[in-house]
Design goal:
Strand 10 and strand 11 (about 340-345) form a beta hairpin. By secondary structure, the protein is α/β, with parallel strands linked by helices. The protein is about 40% helix and about 20% strand.
Length: about 500
C-alpha cells in the first residue's frame, strides 16, 4: 500500500524543571531508550520517533501544533516519566487533532530495594505523574487509549502495536476518497446514509460517478493491454476447460484495467458498484473487484459506501499481518448441528482470505441481465476472525463487531459458483444474530482474519464512534441494556 512505510508515531515524555538539569537529562536518556526499543519492535509497523522531553506549556503547545501539521505523524505516545503538572498540557491537548496513547510505565522493571533513595523516587514518579495526566485527560473528555505495563513486556508492546494500527486506520480515513459508480441498490435502507455526516466525523469523502465514466476509461485500453492481463489471469489461477471462455476473460480484463486506472488517476482508495446500474458494461465486475481488493482497495456491493470505506480502513490497519481482509455478507445459515453462517456474495470476496489457490470460473448470474461474469472461487481459511458493520443510526454512526471462528465447510460445495466462508459466530448463532439485529447491523460487513476486536475498539475510540461488541461473553438481556444506555450516552 502506498505511503504506509512513511508513517510514524511520536514518543513524547512529560516532566518539569523542578527536578533540575541532571534529572531531566536522565529522563531524556531513559525516554529515548524506550522509544528506540519500541521502534525496533517488529510488531509495531510504523516508526516510533523520540521527541524532546516536554517541560513547559509553550513547548507542549508547539509540539501539538507540529504534530497536527506533520502529514506522516499518525499519533502520539505520551508518558509522564516524572510528575508533569497537567495544567501545562491543556492548551496543547486542546489543539491536538492527532490521536494519542497514554503509556503508564516506568523505566525500571524492578525496584532496587537495597539502594532505593529519594533521588530514585523523584526520578521515577510515573505512578502518580501519569495519574495527574490521566485526571486532566478525563476531565477534558479526551479520547485516548491507556496502556499499563512494563514497556518491554510482550503484552504491553502488543497493546501499543494494536493502537498504532488503529491510528493508521484513522489517518487513512481522514484522507480516503470513495467513488460510487451509480447509486445504491434501490429501496435498500442500510446501504444508504448521510455522506456529509460521515465526512464530518470520519473524514472520508464519497463521490458519485456515472457508469459511463468508467466505461469510457475501459474503452481506452488496447487489445494488446487486454491480452496481457488475460495472460496474467491464466498464469495466476487454475482454469478448467469449461470455464476457459476467451471473450468473457477479455471483457473482465477490460473492466479491471478501466477500474484500476480510474481509481489510481482519481486517488480513490475504495469503490462501490451496483448490479442495477451497469449501462455500457458487458458483465458485472467480479474478478476485477476481487483483485483490486487483494491489492488493498476497499469495496462495497450495491452502492454500500460505508462498507467500502470500512474495508479499506481495515486493510490499512491489517497491512503486514498474517491473514486476509475482505468485503463479506452473511448470506445463509446452517441450523443443523452447531448452527453456523455461510458467508459469501454474488462475486466479490477478496482472495486474500483464501485457504488455497483460487479457481477462475465463469458462470451465469441470475440477476442484473448481463453476460456471465468472471470470478475467483475459493474457500476462506479457518481460524479466528471478526466481522464488522458500520451503520448510520440517524443521529450517530455505530460499529457492530462480532468475533467468529471460521471453519472448513462440512461438505463439498460443487454447485456453489462463488467464494465463501463458513463460521461459528460467538457466543452462538442464536445469540449473535439476535444481538446483531437488535443493534441494527447490516448484512454487508468487513471480514478479517488479521484484525481483532482490540483493533476496532481502538479505532472507534479515536473516531468517536459507538462500538457494539458481540463476543463469547454476550448475553442478550445485558446486551439490550447496553443499547439503551448507549442511546442516552450518544444521543445529541
Amino acid at each position: 500500500m502506498k505511503n504506509i512505510e512513511t508513517l510514524e508515531v511520536w514518543f513524547v515524555t512529560g516532566s518539569q524543571h523542578l527536578y533540575g538539569a541532571e534529572a531531566l537529562g536522565q529522563v531524556a536518556a531513559n525516554a529515548q531508550n524506550v522509544a528506540q526499543s519500541l521502534d525496533l519492535e517488529t510488531s509495531i509497523p510504523y516508526r516510533v520517533v523520540f521527541k524532546p522531553v516536554m517541560t513547559t506549556p509553550d513547548e507542549i503547545t508547539r509540539l501539538c501544533r507540529e504534530a497536527n501539521n506533520t502529514e506522516s505523524c499518525i499519533g502520539l505516545i505520551l508518558w509522564m516519566h516524572t510528575f508533569s503538572p497537567a495544567k501545562m498540557w491543556i492548551a496543547g491537548l486542546s489543539l491536538l487533532t492527532k490521536p494519542f496513547l497514554h503509556l503508564h510505565t516506568q523505566f525500571n522493571r524492578e525496584l532496587p530495594w537495597s539502594s532505593i533513595d529519594m533521588d530514585f523516587m523523584n526520578l521515577n514518579q510515573a505512578a502518580h505523574g501519569d495519574r495527574e495526566f490521566g485526571h486532566l485527560t478525563a476531565r477534558l473528555r479526551l479520547a485516548r487509549k491507556v496502556v499499563v505495563g512494563f514497556w518491554k513486556d510482550a503484552e504491553t508492546v502488543a497493546e501499543i502495536a494494536a493502537w498504532t494500527r488503529a491510528a493508521a486506520g484513522w489517518h487513512e480515513s481522514q484522507n480516503l476518497k470513495v467513488v460510487r459508480f451509480g447509486d445504491n441498490m434501490r429501496e435498500v435502507a442500510v446501504t444508504d446514509g448521510d455522506k456529509i455526516a460521515a465526512q464530518a466525523q470520519l473524514g472520508y469523502s464519497v463521490s458519485g460517478y456515472g457508469v459511463g465514466d468508467l466505461v469510457a476509461r475501459m474503452n481506452q485500453f488496447t487489445d494488446t493491454e487486454v491480452d496481457k492481463l488475460v495472460r496474467e489471469y491464466r498464469e495466476a489461477y487454475s482454469i478448467s476447460r469449461e470455464h476457459d471462455r476467451p471473450d468473457s476473460l477479455r471483457d473482465a480484463a477490460k473492466i479491471e484495467l478501466g477500474l484500476r486506472a480510474f481509481l489510481e488517476e482519481g486517488g480513490f482508495g475504495a469503490f462501490t458498484d451496483n448490479f442495477q446500474d451497469l449501462h455500457g458494461m458487458d458483465q458485472l465486475p467480479g474478478i476485477a473487484t476481487q483483485r483490486l481488493m487483494a491489492d488493498g482497495y476497499g469495496f462495497g456491493g450495491e452502492g454500500d459506501w460505508k462498507t467500502a470505506a470500512l474495508v479499506r480502513t481495515m486493510k490499512v490497519m491489517a497491512h503486514g499481518l498474517p491473514g486476509g481482509t475482505s468485503f463479506m455478507e452473511d448470506y445463509t445459515y446452517d441450523f443443523n448441528g452447531t448452527p453456523k453462517v455461510l458467508g459469501s456474495h454474488m462475486l466479490e470476496l477478496c482472495p486474500s482470505i483464501a485457504v488455497d489457490k483460487p479457481a477462475l470460473e465463469v458462470h451465469p448470474l441470475a440477476i442484473g441481465g448481463k453476460s456471465d461474469p468472471v470470478r475467483l472461487v475459493f474457500t476462506a481459511s479457518s481460524g479466528p476472525a471478526i466481522v464488522a458493520s458500520l451503520v448510520d443510526m440517524g443521529d450517530r454512526f455505530r460499529m457492530i463487531v462480532n468475533e467468529v471462528e471460521v471453519i472448513a465447510p462440512e461438505q463439498a460445495l460443487p454447485k456453489l459458483p462463488v467464494a465463501r466462508a463458513v463460521w461459528l459466530p460467538q457466543p452462538s448463532l442464536k445469540v449473535a444474530a439476535a444481538a446483531w439485529i437488535y443493534a441494527g447491523g447490516a448484512h454487508h460487513t468487513g471480514f478479517s482474519h488479521a484484525l481483532t476486536m482490540e483493533h476496532l475498539e481502538d479505532f472507534t475510540e479515536i473516531a468517536g464512534v459507538e462500538l457494539i461488541r458481540i463476543d463469547a461473553d454476550t448475553r442478550i438481556s445485558d446486551f439490550r441494556r447496553q443499547l439503551r444506555w448507549d442511546e442516552a450516552a450518544y444521543s445529541r
